[in-house]
Amino acid sequence: MVRSGELFKYMLSIMNKALEVLSPQLLIGYDVGCKLATTVKSTTLATKFNESNSRLCIDAFHGYTHNYTCQDRNHPNIIQGMGLEDFSTMERIFSSSNQLAPWDEDKYMNIGNMLYNNYRQAHGIIERETIEFEHAKLSLGITDASIEEWQKQQLVYLETLGKEAEWDVHAMTYIELLQNLRDARAAAQCASASFLDAIPTDYQFVSTSTATSTDAIYANNLSQTRKLETQ
Prior knowledge:
Layout: H1 6-21, E1 27-30, H2 33-41, H3 45-51, E2 55-58, H4 60-63, H5 68-74, H6 89-99, H7 104-140, H8 144-160, H9 166-179, H10 184-193, H11 213-230
Parallel strand pairs: 1-2
């Protein structure tokens, strides 16, 4: 079923039914909710899903096995208003049905206790940790806007992680030229003793975005070559 793609077909059918029966603004958790979201966009369900202002995410347990960029977008911990839900409720229900005798009263009581304990935990967090969090913000001199800005910066960092900056490629080329000098001793002395002083005072790094067409082509080819050599 997984190989044939039938699993996502069942998920799309369930989502369509949920949108018809339940209220809008659904948050749907799934082991690979990130991939399912991409699938939804390419189906006839996309318009209905978007108009309902719903979204998909990954469940907390499986989410930690995804890459950091996915976690920063789809993990329940970063979704505002998510609360304590980790999207493993079905697993708990299945587990309780396996452990208990086949009596509905016992199953419902067990689920009721789980919901009650979750409520108590959430209430305790709101009472205690909200106050502690506000005190921490005051002592550190930060605001909610600061935290939101850090989250945006983290996402940008994760999305560009592993990509060589143009300046880094340029600087590494300069260092490699030093190392390739025939007189190894002179090169070592130059690199270790006066590397920074060896840069001319009128030197200016020129980005490929602002260079002339010929310079841009050469710099781009050089950058690609360095990346291939690094790989």
